[in-house]
Amino acid sequence: MPAECEDFGIVGNNLRLRQVRTIIRTAAPSDASVLIEGESGTGKELIATALHVCSERATRPFIRINCAAIPNTLIESELFGYRKGAFTGADNDRRGLIEATAGGTLLLDEIAEMPVYLQTKLLRVLQERTVRRLGDLREIPVDFRLIASTNRNTDQMIDAGTLRTDLYFRVSTVKITVPPLRERLDDLVLLSETFLLRLARKYKKPVRGISPASRAILMRYAWPGNVRELESVIEHAVLFAQSDYLMPEDLPDHLRDARPQSFLCVIPPFLTKDDIEREAIAQTLERTGGNIKKTAQILNYNRPTLYRRLRRFGLRDSLMPAK
After folding, report:
1. What is the pLDDT at residue 130?
2. Do residues 61 and 106 touch, judged by C-beta distance below 8 A?
3. Is it true that domain 273-318 has CATH number 1.10.10?
4. Which residues contact 73 (CB under 8 A, 6 or more apart)?
5. pTM of the predicted model over 0.85
């Protein structure tokens, strides 16, 4: 198995993200159609790429088409191809992207934006495993694995009649739902630091960390653009950084001015400050796999202070070996 199939290049330890990795690991070797659902910027194309790279079709083409980016008048010929003379401007025979996939993987990004009449035609291709070019009478056998993605609510689109139920079931043999960044904020620091290290190397900047004040600003923001927006924000901050840590003034203005949309967590009533601190330390230790150094960084403790808290709250016995 290729090295990139270890974690698929997907950064994060959130439970839902670990479940996504498990599904990829199980589904990739098969030929099952996969539907990836999630908001824009959550990493759907990264998951699609992992499904291809870790499949038996990895040496064959991986072709992507964004159904929302191509005019309805062109998408049919792009997908299915055409014969010479099929329409004005069709001066030569041309194979479509389904044919061009030739044993590989076809990613239909934003499949829910495909016109309904084309959904019917695609469904037939998936059932018959043949394609007919525009203006042709011949059926051409095709061999490809389909991966589809959408940022829309498929239940609502089915109810509205803009997504065919039979096509939905055909393309969603396996369904992967990618959580938005605001629902996995426990991964935000790890993601930020991963982007920071890569971008600092790219721009040859001596930045090596994120200040606690900057971390707090990142944590309170709603992230409508998800991981893609976070990467852009870190890139901006690295470019403008004047020290070896990202400071609040390095972040874009709209982040510093943002107000939290809601509380980041719900604290049960009647807990004391010590109860809350103990729980924060215990959960952070669990998420870092018992890594004292990483736990101290996340909670903004120095290591001696963290060790004192561990003794005070009786957490030392629950530790994995310190790293």
Report:
1. 97
2. no
3. yes
4. none
5. no
Report pLDDT digits (tens) over 120-129.
999 999 999 9
CA 122 to CA 56: how far, in whole Å?
23
Q: What would the pLDDT profile of 237-255 be if each residue is shown by its tens digit? A: 999 999 999 999 999 999 9
Question: 246 has which bridge partners?
Answer: 210
Q: Quick one: pLDDT band at residue 274, thresholds 50, 70, 90?
A: confident
Name the pairing type of β-strands 209-210 and 174-177: unpaired
Q: Is the dihedral of CA 80, 83, 86, 91 positive or negative?
A: positive
Homologous superfamily (CATH) for 3-179: P-loop containing nucleotide triphosphate hydrolases (3.40.50.300)
Q: Where are the domains of the chain?
A: 3-179, 182-257, 273-318
Give first-to-last CA distance, the chain, whole Å.
28
Which pLDDT band, with edges at 50, 70 and 90, does 190 fall under? very high
Q: Reduced to 3 states, what is the DSSP secondary structure of residue 175? A: strand
Contacts of 57 (CB under 8 A, 6+ apart): 103, 104, 105, 145
Number of Cβ atoms within 10 Å of the Cβ of 247: 15
CATH topology of domain 182-257: Helicase, Ruva Protein; domain 3 (1.10.8)
Q: State residue 83 phi and psi, 5-degree precision.
A: -95, 155
> What are the residue ranges of helices labelled H in 129-183?
154-160, 165-171
CA distances in angstroms from 122 to 65, 86, 114, 224, listed in the order given:
14, 19, 10, 32
- 209-210/245-246 β-pairing: parallel
pLDDT at 294: 85
